[in-house]
Amino acid sequence: MDNYWPVIFIVCAIALAVGPVMMMQPSQRIRRLSALRQAAAQKSIRVRLSTVTLTSGKKEVAVYSMPLPKTEAVRPKWTLLKQGYTHEANFDNLWDWENKKNTAPKGQHAILRELISSFDESIIGFEASQSSVGIYWCEKTLTIDDIESVLTRSKNALS
Fold it and tell me: What is the pTM of this model?
């Protein structure tokens, strides 16, 4: 029985040394998100994290955006968010303006309705500013090529 104590001691020492190192390894989800965001950067798609307030509460999402062509004209800044309910007061079924004071020009409303109707369930927001167009994406179900396609269609429609 006395011969086992050194072996037990060595096994515990190795576990104490290796355990914390293994805990510092990124999870599979973090590695997937990192690869996804790296692929976006290679396609000149910018990614930022943003906290949005939805009817279900605050949620942190990734905003993938693409630059719009430069112009002297002033483009309004607006954001559409997917709500947790359908209501006739919303802009379009589940979608409504984040701020009712900052909306897209009425001439773009038909185009916006067409765009958001084609969005995947994992896209919960859509924004435009003077310099870019972006989508709020939960980073599920779609590939970076799908996101690039959505952003390109949106960019072309709003340019």
Answer: 0.79
